[in-house]
Design a protein that fits this description.
Length: 337
Amino acid sequence: MKPQVEPLPPPAAAGPEPDCHAALERAIAAHDRPPLGEILARRGLGPYRGYSAMLREIRELAASGARLEALGRSVQGEPLLALCFGARRPDPSMRTSVILSGLHPMEWIGIETHFELLRRLLALDLRERAVLAVPVANPDGVLRVDRNLRAGRWRFVRHNARGVDLNRNFDVRWGRRNHWTRLVPWVVRPGPYPASEPEVGAVASALSRRRVDRALSLHSFGGAVLYPSAYSLLPVADAAEHRRWARHVAVRAAARAYRALPCAWYGLGLAQGGLELDWLHERHGALSLLVECSRGGFGPSPQRLLDPFAWFNPPRPAETAARIAAAVLPFVAGSEC
Ligand SMILES: [Zn+2]
């Protein structure tokens, strides 16, 4: 089935934003809403912050020493914001760690974990390393989830504003089909061509100017630490180093260790194309990990069973975020394992 897509936004909206602080302030003003955490906590969903509070946290981190960059704009014109750590003026040869979260917009525990990790990074001397972090990689999707939560609507949201699964849109083995893409084509839509979506294009363009050697993407759920590849059951050349790091994180991420395995094995051997995990590994040569934060937020109450938000997000986000942030910090900081 061919995904229905709309034309790209006008060219003026693409590319790095010269005044990223002004763009952030405009977005905060445009989406200013009462705190979402209290509403969700009353429903047993956990005190997650909404989109405007995520933007405020980005502002807070920028005020505390991180450098703000706007990488571009989403389909609906939201700024795609990055926080940079390390040297003030990184030269292109400097080793860079990349952190992504929110590609799948319901997986808010990944965003919470990301913010916790960045707080810890602020206190660290990164020496000869830069870190580029994109906490909300799919702002239009996150906004849609925010609106659904405020309205009390139980909706599953996985795509960007044009119905594309951003984590199938990267330019690596793009469009590879499997049983899932045939059975539920409306869930896993890769877009009309590789990197067709402005959110993916903005990340790819920002990283093209950097030497990326570590990459971490935060998702949910499943309680697993995944490494390349997603498209083949065969081991990648540097599988041993990936396995070492994945196990290191997996045993520290939770009281009962997470699983550590190649992504294709996690996906029941179904080849998946267009994932950030493989793109970062193949195109940049980075050691790449994808953490499925938490084992999910299922519970006995009808609310937790019926509301898709609860499937992905545990009711006590601070505990999960602190544990995983501590587990992945040495990986992101460039330590040896
Ligand atoms: Zn995901």
